[in-house]
Backbone:
């Protein structure tokens, strides 16, 4: 007789997708050069790509504004695993998957130095190079690349990893960032302009995508984008996309891994995200025992996988496993609307967050690709 408990705990294979987030920025670059590209974008004089952190396809669909009205059923791509900003933006910026660029999580543990490494905000412009495997498109492109972001990110290692070689511009408000981008695309033909907007992701973490605060902020973004689209000059294409979606998690759906006896005192570190924590064991010979007990403890609330299984099921590639000092022993992948914590390692602030991401649910992995200006054939675009 089949073991249905085991069957429900097996990690599903990665779904086949037509487009991936890694296709977006390099397709915009190719469209300026008049080259074939994955998104089949038409040739343009200049291109703007707006990256709205945390605005998943499924998060956008229930709204009723300008973006939603221009969102077609097939206007989406999928990000990789984990569905987190570090991995997704690095894929977007480099045109390769997580195994190609090497930034495979929000945070990881370096066994050699016995340190947890925050890949998003914990490294400077030099130390990030210890983990980055490939230069971003901005550093190797033959077109002029501009990056319009917040001044807070000017000296960060992650900016070095994703937009090295770009001409950087800063503005606090999204309306000002979009106006800078529009002006650059108009006044400097041949420009590829990247615009980053972290505000919706931040609000989702604080309040959730179901909150009035998040919906009000989305409405503000919607108006700003609509105004920008109305002012685009002929020859300019604009894409709106995101790095991941958001799942709201109530406090009652928090799972504490240390409630499982096998995981209570056996870990050196827990990194990653609350919906895809990376477990580093104190003793590797305990791996199978801990995996079995965790799988039984979590039941249908999460998958428990070894990195080799992430390769087997298509989420990672074999070359990533070569990073012995960095690879977790186990990866826990949340299902449904759960988030996973270990009290010995979780930051108090993470327990207060409502919006989460990092897992393989379509709400997290499916991101919009909305086309405006010369990229669009929609009659709804002004």
Residues:
């Amino acid at each position: 007789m089949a073991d249905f408990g085991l069957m429900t705990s097996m990690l599903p294979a990665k779904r086949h997708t037509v487009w991936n987030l890694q296709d977006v920025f390099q397709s915009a670059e190719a469209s300026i050069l008049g080259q074939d590209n994955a998104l089949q974008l038409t040739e343009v004089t200049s291109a703007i790509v707006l990256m709205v952190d945390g605005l998943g396809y499924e998060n956008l669909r229930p709204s009723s504004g300008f973006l939603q009205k221009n969102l077609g059923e097939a206007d989406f791509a999928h990000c990789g695993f984990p569905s987190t900003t570090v991995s997704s933006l690095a894929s977007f910026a480099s045109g390769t998957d997580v195994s190609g660029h090497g930034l495979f999580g929000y945070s990881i543990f370096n066994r050699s130095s016995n340190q947890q490494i925050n890949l998003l905000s914990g490294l400077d412009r030099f130390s990030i190079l210890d983990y980055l495997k490939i230069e971003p498109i901005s550093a190797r492109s033959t077109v002029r690349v501009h990056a319009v972001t917040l001044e807070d990110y000017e000296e960060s290692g992650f900016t070095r990893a994703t937009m090295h070689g770009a001409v950087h511009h800063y503005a606090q408000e999204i309306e000002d960032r979009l106006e800078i981008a529009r002006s650059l695309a108009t006044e400097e033909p041949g420009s590829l302009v990247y615009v980053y907007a972290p505000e919706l992701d931040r609000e989702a973490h604080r309040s959730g995508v179901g909150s009035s605060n998040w919906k009000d902020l989305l409405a503000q973004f919607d108006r700003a984008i609509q105004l920008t689209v109305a002012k685009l000059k002929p020859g300019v294409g604009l894409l709106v996309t995101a790095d991941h979606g958001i799942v709201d998690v109530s406090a009652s759906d928090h799972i504490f891994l240390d409630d499982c006896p096998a995981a209570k005192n056996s870990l050196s570190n827990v990194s990653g995200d609350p919906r895809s924590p990376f477990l580093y064991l104190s003793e590797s010979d305990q791996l199978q025992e801990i995996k079995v007990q965790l799988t039984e403890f979590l039941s249908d609330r999460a998958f428990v996988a070894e990195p080799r299984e992430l390769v087997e099921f298509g989420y990672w590639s074999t070359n990533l496993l070569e990073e012995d000092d960095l690879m977790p022993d186990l990866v826990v992948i949340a299902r449904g609307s759960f988030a996973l914590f270990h009290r010995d390692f979780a930051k108090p602030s993470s327990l207060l967050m409502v919006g989460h991401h990092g897992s393989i649910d379509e709400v997290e992995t499916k991101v919009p690709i909305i086309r405006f200006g010369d990229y669009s054939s929609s009659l709804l675009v002004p």
